[in-house]
Automatic annotation (TrEMBL):
Protein name: Carotenoid cleavage dioxygenase 8
Keywords: Dioxygenase, Iron, Metal-binding, Oxidoreductase
GO biological process, one term: carotene catabolic process
Binding site for Fe cation: 146, 196, 263, 453
Originating organism: Nyssa sinensis
Cofactors required: Fe(2+)
Single GO MF descriptor: metal ion binding
Protein family according to the UniProt entry: Belongs to the carotenoid oxygenase family.
Cofactor details (free text): Binds 1 Fe(2+) ion per subunit.
């Protein structure tokens, strides 16, 4: 295996003082580091020192609005002040607890849904170095938690909550300036669909418009609704838009069946014998248009498992977006969901195949009964089969693919996952990406909380 560092970000501290948070996504960010070199593994972890985390530690109480939490106000005037600071973004959290990316210039940035929650860290010491300040004047309060990051560019979506739509923006390595590629206007309403992630191909940005839409009224409420900051609008329908990276023009905009997804896996261009693009194929972890997955992630639900099978079904949802002017696209299962236990989330691919035709993906699946994804699964989207890893009582986090140096096959490499084991223990797991057999595991000296998304930082 090549030398380098795997970083994983995610919520890891769910209480402050004697107050316990409600939702998995509320926790203060915990960064875990696995450094591989000369056959040895060195592990460490630290809290990301966001303003939200530091204020909570200093005041022994919640001070910023988290995913499902809002600071308690003492009176009506204080509540009105909180609303004013919400509209300005001042009261929104900068708790960067979702993902971590290595930019083309080598900087490592932790991210969440709020733009202010973009924080630069040192991948060797895990020190918090400061805010990632965007130097442009685009403004906005939120963006996709999962930008597309390569050696040559950074692409993301900025939802417009006032005039429903999305700005598609690009940032060059070595700069902090986002430049607009184009704008997508929503076809449904009353607000843009949630865009936690989105896919790209070699020439296009795919902008999903999900009927699970941002909701300003829910954002203003002190107590969470079942869908938190969102609202389900099936009557507004679902759409997928395709924008040309070079021109910013919309080249396709189709209605699709209702869908719910947090995470897109990959997308690619389907061409005819003359090389003309005839369709876009975009794959995601799709929850059968069922929004209840959000409420299943309340900590109370996760911690009170009684053995019943309560994890909502999910599948690899494959969007087929035609380029022939058709008004409708398709959404089908890319393989039989029984192959991966009808659980599907937290996906990765070989990054060399980003935006290209690909065969393999790695994700978390399910061994039923369960209340949370509890397997690692390798998806073969050509043979439509899956290989699964399962260890009773273990909860694996996102499987992350790292290619073997000099590899020529798509699945020649290793898959890294951090496992939260029974009895509060944990270990790092390495699987051979081809056979999906275990290569090694390294037990942590202490237990670690479940985490979300990671990145690879090559040596040098």
């Amino acid at each position: 295996m090549q030398s380098g560092t795997y970083l994983r970000n995610g919520p890891g501290l769910w209480h402050i003082g004697d107050y316990n948070f409600r939702h998995l996504f509320d926790g203060y960010a915990t960064l875990v580091r696995l450094h591989f070199e000369n056959g040895r593994l060195i592990m460490g972890h630290r809290q990301i020192e966001s303003e939200a985390y530091k204020a909570a530690k200093r005041n022994n109480k919640l001070c910023y609005r988290e995913f499902s939490e809002a600071p308690k106000t003492d009176n009506f005037l204080a509540y009105m002040g909180d609303l004013a600071s919400l509209f300005s973004g001042a009261s929104l959290t900068d708790n960067a607890n979702t993902g971590v990316v290595t930019l083309g210039d080598g900087r490592v940035v932790c991210l969440t849904e709020t733009i202010k929650g973009s924080i630069v860290i040192d991948p060797d010491t895990l020190d918090t170095l400061g805010k990632f300040e965007y130097s442009d004047s685009l403004g906005g309060l939120i963006h996709s938690a999962h930008p597309i990051v390569t050696d040559t560019e950074f692409l993301t979506l900025l939802p417009d909550l006032v005039n429903p739509g999305y700005l598609v923006v690009r940032m060059e390595p070595g700069t902090n300036e986002r430049k607009v590629i184009g704008r997508v206007s929503c076809r449904g309403g009353p607000a843009p669909g949630w865009v936690h992630s989105f896919p790209v191909t070699e020439h296009y940005v795919i902008v999903p418009e999900m009927p699970l839409r941002y909701c300003a009224q829910n954002l203003l409420k002190a107590e969470p609704t079942p869908l938190y900051k969102f609202e389900w609008h099936p009557d507004s329908k679902g759409f997928v838009h395709v924008m040309c990276k070079a021109s910013g023009k919309i080249v396709a905009s189709v209605e699709v069946p209702l869908f719910v997804t947090f995470h897109f896996i990959n997308a690619y261009e389907e061409t005819d014998e003359d090389g003309r693009v005839i369709a876009i194929i975009a794959d995601c972890c799709e929850h059968n248009a069922d929004t209840t997955i959000l409420d299943k992630l309340r900590l109370q639900n996760l911690r009170s498992y009684t053995g019943e099978d309560v994890l909502p079904d999910a599948r690899v949802g494959r969007f087929i977006i035609p380029f022939d002017g058709s008004p409708n696209g398709k959404l089908v299962a890319a393989l039989d969901p029984e192959e991966h236990g009808k659980g599907m989330d937290m996906c990765s691919i070989n990054p060399a195949y980003l935006g290209k035709k690909y065969r393999y993906a790695y994700a978390c699946g399910a061994q039923r009964p369960c209340n949370f994804p509890n397997t690692l699964t390798k998806l073969d989207l050509v043979e439509k089969k899956a290989k699964n890893w399962w260890d009773e009582g273990a909860v694996p986090s996102e499987p992350f693919f790292v290619a073997r140096p000099g590899a020529t096959e798509e699945d020649d490499g290793v898959v890294i996952s951090m496992i939260s084991d029974k009895n509060g223990e944990g270990y790092a797991l390495l699987l051979d990406a081809s056979s999906f057999k275990e290569i090694a595991r390294a037990k942590f000296p202490y237990g670690l909380p479940y985490g979300l998304h990671g990145c690879w930082v090559p040596k040098n």
